[in-house]
Amino acid sequence: MDNEDAPPEVVVDALGVPVGIPVTGPDAERLRRQWSRSLSDRSPVVVIELDRLHGDGDVATDYATTALVTVAALDATKGQRINIHGGAVADEDGRTLAVIGPSGSGKTTAVALLATRLGYLSDETVSLDEALVVHAHPKPLSVITDPTNPQVKLSVSPDDAGLLRPPPVSRLHRIVLLHRGEDDSGLVPVAPAYAIAEIVQQTSSLVEVEQPILRLAETIDACGGVWSLRYREIGERLDELVGLLDREPRPAPARAHHPWRGTRGLPTPGAWRREPWLDAVEYDDEVVVMVDTEVRVLVGLGLVLWLALTGPRTLDELVVTTTEQMGDHPDAEGLVAGALALLAEDGLVIGPPA
Length: 354
Prior knowledge:
By secondary structure, this protein is α+β, with helices and mostly antiparallel strands. The protein is 28% helix and 26% strand. The chain has three domains: 10-77, no CATH class; 82-246, Rossmann fold, CATH 3.40.50; 256-350, Outer Surface Protein A, domain 3, CATH 3.90.930. It contains nine helices and 21 strands. A hairpin with a 5-residue loop joins β7 and β8 (134-135). α7 crosses α8. It starts with 9 loop residues before the first strand and ends with a strand. This is PqqD family peptide modification chaperone.
């Protein structure tokens, strides 16, 4: 914050972070209305820089301002929370339903409709601490008013939209991955490894979180699994989504954690080894591995090989291991060599030194 300037007229709580918006006069009045659910009397810990914006009119500038506020809050909480690109609503008991998906998956529309029955927490970010408390971000809704120009989004106060208020404390209870398209099959369970891989793509600064894949696995277990909603019209699926809060949770599957130990060792002549990874969790038939910011789900031969590489192994040793676990094959060596090459392409293993 720049101490040479007066405190900003507008301060909002975004994910629990007081963020200052340096506006005055009519701009301040307009933004106070849009951020009616988030106004704060606290001193800001960060003030966004509006001089970086070059919006064409108030609508574009307000939308860009919302993005800057969100980014500032995400930066302030990275490493402390799991921040997911998604929307959240909560019932009067604080049981929170998160709907997760990329831009264009229908999050804002889903949340706007759900929040006529459940309390509005956010249509942008689901911010979770270790106790699974959802830190609210009741920002203005970003509403497309002209279908021919979807990049222009009107900022609408949740009060003006008539959205319900959540209780003071809300905790994540159910998770849904949104998939809008021609497939209208509704809610279906998602295997946890694949759910983790999909959720990772919608997170912010997950690599800053300690043991991020384990944290996601534990979150999924606590929420009774993850569901995918495949739909054409979200309005036809509201009963299913709201009913999910009372639906019987799925039992947590057995899993094993494979944390990175922080040691790589020297190359061994003729041996393959794992590339350093950030975190990994193994389920019965899959292992989900995070390397840098990328996640891979391994099954079948790839799974067997990655798990076998607890230390350096030669191709011959790996062929023996795979045949013991998967049975004999006339081209076992070729299959293993091909699978290792694919794992190497994905940055998961490294071959013998030349």
